[in-house]
Amino acid sequence: MRQSSLFTKTRREAPSDELAKNAQLLIRAGFVHKEMAGVYAYLPLGIKVIENIKKIVREEMDAIGGSEIIMTALQRKELWEQTDRWDDEKVDVWFKSSLKNGTGVGFGWSHEEPITDMMKSYLESYRDLPAFVYQFQTKLRNELRAKSGIMRGREFVMKDMYSYTKDEAAHKAFYDAAIEAYHNVFKRVGLGDRTYLTVASGGAFTQFSHEFQTLDESGEDVIYVHKEKKIAVNKEVLTDEVLAQLDIKRDELEEAKAVEVGNIFSFGDVKSKQLGLLYTAEDGEQKPVILGSYGIGITRLMGTLVEAFADEKGMVWPEAVAPFRYHLVSLAGSDSDIAAFAEAVYEELADAGQAVLYDDRDLRAGEKFADADLIGIPWRVIVGRDAIPGGQVELVNRATGEVQKLTRQELLAR
Amino acid sequence: MRQSSLFTKTRREAPSDELAKNAQLLIRAGFVHKEMAGVYAYLPLGIKVIENIKKIVREEMDAIGGSEIIMTALQRKELWEQTDRWDDEKVDVWFKSSLKNGTGVGFGWSHEEPITDMMKSYLESYRDLPAFVYQFQTKLRNELRAKSGIMRGREFVMKDMYSYTKDEAAHKAFYDAAIEAYHNVFKRVGLGDRTYLTVASGGAFTQFSHEFQTLDESGEDVIYVHKEKKIAVNKEVLTDEVLAQLDIKRDELEEAKAVEVGNIFSFGDVKSKQLGLLYTAEDGEQKPVILGSYGIGITRLMGTLVEAFADEKGMVWPEAVAPFRYHLVSLAGSDSDIAAFAEAVYEELADAGQAVLYDDRDLRAGEKFADADLIGIPWRVIVGRDAIPGGQVELVNRATGEVQKLTRQELLAR
């Protein structure tokens, strides 16, 4: 893509009311637009990052048998009353409105209820189980405060998956597979080494739930990390009893701030009983389906990547999610030979299927480099004085600053 | 995909409260789930059709210079007050709610206002123009009645595009390009021969707007079609004056019911003036940006395809949008040789990158065929008695019923 055709521009300053580093950088670089506190639109560069993250998550969810669906924002009051989660005293993040005939409706802040209710149409016998469904859904939550940029929004994208199994053994098998799939996701987006499977409090059904916590100063959570065992314990369950259960000593743990990028938990048969999701077992008996729930905050993950990798010059995207792989910067100025060389490099990379942002704008080198640093594409290809007659480009790694001189052929061969 | 792993099932009956043919068939076949009137979730087969339609629309919008973005559901009251479209007397489809601090918010039923307001951050000079942006957005509209299935929903997916140009000439050039792109979209999804560019009433700025109307009995609109000239006139502008302008005689027109699958219109400089989207022209003067708006109802288009092509046995998907290209039906029964043959055909087609739904279920042939007819995948591949020892499969065209006998090699070579 030619940068001259990108309608967004970089800015020197973030809006004064934006406190979070992730949103400051994303707004300055033109990835997102702030509609109101906690509500962001995603612009061409931002939507590419979102789609790259979704692609990785989709592949990992499909690999463990997930089927993609998409539920609705509009929610029926009666349904949520059945599980006692309609009342604002019980759930304090509802946005509510009403149909023309006065019927109350809510806007989906979570989707266990409608998916589980829908499943009553499809899961009738043990032969229909297990079933694993997931969606990428825009959640709407009426948060009191929203000051963490895209990491805690009033409107945000979440991948939520639900498992429907016939018994505890089948549930446990999928739960464990989901843990592996989640590890794969965080590894692939570049956060593997700082993301910890974290023991957290369970609900009515199980003692524990599990969070995936990424160590970062921007995090709202405090966890206790066992680096050697590569697990962590959430503050809320840090008791001697739990430590003994996990075979961990208190002095082996390090306190750290972290971002909850994923969570998985068991609903057991509670919700199935409330909503009447029963199946006919092999023995002819009617039994409640066992439900598990598995979330990854897609936009939060994007914000976490900004927080985790940004430096003083701007963002640094891991290659797997970057909006483009290469940022081709032409320093041709008025030299038409260098300009033609840069055009040729752009065409070659594009023809080879590489994602390239081509800075073809008529600006000074310093401005172009500042923009490129801010935008944070992993590999910068500089076409300048070495191009003619030397035929070389400079390849700069955004994360390390390392510079290599390459010919066009060597660049293409990478 | 193995049909045994699909959690949805077909049903003989549609819900009794569902009046629209499109929703009846989509629900019976397991493509969609009705959450409430006019509000549908999309299940694995349904989401594939949506994504196929979006892919075609995305390619055509990108081809004319569109940049994809995604705006927000939550809308600021103050913004819509600036254009006098907040009041329920002026816009009667708002869903409204409020933040914890009492600030009123609405849910996006349209997005001209927020996109145009956002553009004030990016379009400052004639050098920044033109800009063309589009999104696939879930629109929320508080419709009084919703009884046309997925063709008029309270929650639906729309592609809306906006053009920002510096003058009428640039606007007209893009407007014409958009008409061509829209024709391409409707041609590619299989509705080209029954979709008419239709002259409709304009707004404050232009005499006419343009609709794309697909002839179908399920349509809510009445248009007057000039088959030879391949254009139509909406009832609302059918006057002698307009006919004279278009050089059409009244007796050359045929009245027909039609579905509005797309529309394009000019806002002129009205909204830019209201919201203060001004640019500095070449001569240094501040001028309002010219705005055009271009919509395609993605879910409505999906419903229209069902209505247009379904027969008494079920749906008939055009190849470009079908959830799968092939429906492989194994009639192996207890014959393990035929079963192995079917498995091999499945693997071969899948390896060749073909999208195949493989009916590997243990059901009678009649049930499998009834399901396949209902689901409506374009090509059915039947593996039955001709497989062993003849090595042949039957290829049946869902639309025409035409049958061919092919070897596996011949099937793969298609």
Tell me what you see in this structure.
The structure is a homodimer of 414-residue chains. By secondary structure, the first copy, chain A, is of the alpha+beta class. Chain A folds into two domains: 3-73 and 108-309, Bira Bifunctional Protein, Domain 2 (BirA Bifunctional Protein, domain 2, 2-Layer Sandwich); 326-413, Rossmann fold, CATH 3.40.50.800. Helix content of chain A is 29%, strand content 29%. Chain A is built from eleven helices and 21 strands. In chain A, a hairpin with a 2-residue loop joins strand 1 and strand 2 (39-42). Chain A is elongated and about 80 Å long. Chains A and B meet through strand 1, strand 2, helix 2, strand 3 and strand 4 of A and strand 1, strand 2, helix 2, strand 3 and strand 4 of B.
Strand percentage of chain A, roughly? 25-35%
How many domains would you count in the coordinates of chain A? 2
- The CATH superfamily of the largest domain in chain A bears the name Bira Bifunctional Protein, Domain 2
Oligomer: homodimer
- CA-CA gap between termini of chain A: 20 Å
Q: For the largest sheet of chain A, list the strands in their spatial order.
A: 9-10-13-11-12
Features:
homodimer; 414 residues; alpha+beta; BirA Bifunctional Protein, domain 2; Rossmann fold; 2 domains; five-stranded mixed beta barrel; five-stranded mixed sheet; 29% strand; elongated
In short:
The structure is a homodimer of 414-residue chains. By secondary structure, the first copy, chain A, is of the alpha+beta class. Chain A folds into two domains: 3-73 and 108-309, BirA Bifunctional Protein, domain 2; 326-413, 3-Layer(aba) Sandwich (Rossmann fold), CATH 3.40.50.
